[in-house]
Structures are given as C-alpha cells and as structure tokens.
Amino acid sequence: xxxxxxxxxxxxxxxxxxxxxxxxxxxxxxxxxxxxxxxxxxxxxxxxxxxxxxxxxxxxxxxxxxxxxxxxxxxxxxxxxxxxxxxxxxxxxxxxxxxxxxxxxxxxxxxxxxxxxxxxxxxxxxxxxxxxxxxxxxxxxxxxxxxxxxxxxxxxxxxxxxxxxxxxxxxxxxxxxxxxxxxxxxxxxxxxxxxxxxxxxxxxxxxxxxxxxxxxxxxxxxxxxxxxxxxxxxxxxxxxxxxxxxxxxxxxxxxxxxxxxxxxxxxxxxxxxxxxxxxxxxxxxxxxxxxxxxxxxxxxxxxxxxxxxxxxxxxxxxxxxxxxxxxxxxxxxxxxxxx
Length: 339
What we know:
Blueprint: E1 3-6, E2 13-16, E3 57-60, E4 70-76, E5 93-96, E6 100-103, E7 108-113, H1 127-144, E8 152-159, E9 171-177, H2 182-198, H3 202-213, E10 217-220, E11 224-227, E12 238-242, H4 254-275, E13 280-285, E14 300-305, H5 312-317, E15 320-322, H6 326-334
Parallel strand pairs: 2-15
Antiparallel strand pairs: 1-2, 3-4, 4-7, 5-6, 7-9, 8-9, 8-13, 10-11, 11-12, 12-14, 13-14
C-alpha cells in the first residue's frame, strides 16, 4: 500500500508510491558520453574569457584578470534573471488597480565556473578543487549579502538537460534577490512554530532522530550529516546538513567549508557511480540576510537527481509522487564504495 508522508520542514505532503516503487537499481541508466575537454565555442572554456562579462572573482596562477590561468572564475551572468542596474537603489514598487503588485527586477546573478575543463564534473575533482569551489561560493555569498536591498542569496547548480542547464561546462549560479521566496518563507514559518512549541531547532532534532533511526542515513561525519529525507519528493533526494547549528551558509568557518566540498564530492561520486551521471539540481537553503543570526532555522544543501518528471497530478495538487523508497535508496547509496 502506498504511503502519504508529511515533510516536517514544510508541512507539505508527499506520496511514496510503494505499489509502483522501483528498486534502487531500476533507476540506473547508461552514463552519458563525456564532451571534449575543451570546446572552442564554449564561453566558459579558457581562452574565451572575452566572451563573458568581466570576472568578479578569480582563483588563478598569476596573470591579469579575464585571461587564462584560472582554476575557478566568477562572472556576472550575461543572461541574468535580475538586472544589476541600480542594484544599490531602492526598487520601485507599484500596485495597479489595488491588486496587481510589481517591483523593479534588480539584483545580482552570477555564474561560478568550477573548472577550466569542459568535461570535468564535480565528483571527479581533486579534493582541493572541490574545497575551493565551495570556498568561492561562500566568498561570493558574503560579498552579495552586503549589497543594499538584497534580502536573500540563493546558490544552486543545474547539471544536465533535465535539470535545466543551458551550458555543459561545469558551473554553479548565485542569485541575490530583493524578495524572499515563498518556499523559503514556508520553511522559516514551520521552523519558527517548532521552535516556539519545543524550544529548540527543528533541524537539529531531525538530525538526531534520523541518526537514531539510521534507516535513511547515508553518512555521519564529524561536521556534516547526510540523509535521504523521510518525505523525499523524488528518488535519491539527498540532504547535507551541518551538525553545528547555524542559520546561514556564509557563517561556515574555513575548515567546515573545505569539509563541505569534500563531502559534496563524495556524495555526488556515489550518486554518479550508482546511477550513471544523472541530471541533478543542487540548492542551498539558507536564511534571509536579516534572519541569519536566528536560532530557529538551520541551513542545509539539497541534491535532487532528476530521475522522474513533474506531471499533471503534481502540478494540479502540489503533491509530489516519489517511486523510490528513501529507506531503500539511502541503503543503496551507503553501500557504494568509492576508490
């Protein structure tokens, strides 16, 4: 019989379709062929720096900015979702006919190019490269959060067509917005109610409960806890949570930032080895800028392999159907051995 499970962090419901559930190995697909190491038409490949906006951050082996020699590079997104024009000014807000609200779409949208190699994916990075990608993300988070009128900084990664990527070259994105998304507001409201009712952090208690249950735990490290959530929205959805309470990704110390890079590399490596280079999204859920010091929220990173598609029922109901049991997918990922 199928189960309807509630996500304790949002109070939303998910259907775990056990009657048509797939075993973990049923999600395995042949790995897609790798593109070439260098693509002369790719604006993110070294030597093509003039095809992108001027960099705002570069980790490089000497040489001037916007030239080859870098191993990580951050640039404004040429096709930005938000306009940087007058980003320091107060966005103009209007209401039409007392009902239709709008405001200027100002903010910042940046791309972090993770490697000079067009075909080198995160699970295959050297540890130092994985560490420094996360260090660079943190550095840009801390810079963007200080800009006036920025309410939240959203960090995400799209890998593969089904995840919404438009360029194959490995990259992440950072968007600083003057609004707080409702999905984050729901997480904050749920965490606040739990804190008020129980006097503690929902996510800290969730880590302890999942550690005790053990069935959905993927990895328990010194600084981070990795699990498949009880009410996973999709097969192999994976959360990486800091074990030290913090509402803000940017508050990581440098050692923890490096450790997160290694953990993310290892977890993605297991997903790649088991599932064959699946398309996936990564998103970091962190508190809005003016709530970074609060006790009730706890930042975390989500990996969502794109093994199923949203269809009419999900669109019509807002309820996701998951055909992979989190207990089984976590067990399968725990069993993966990396060389």
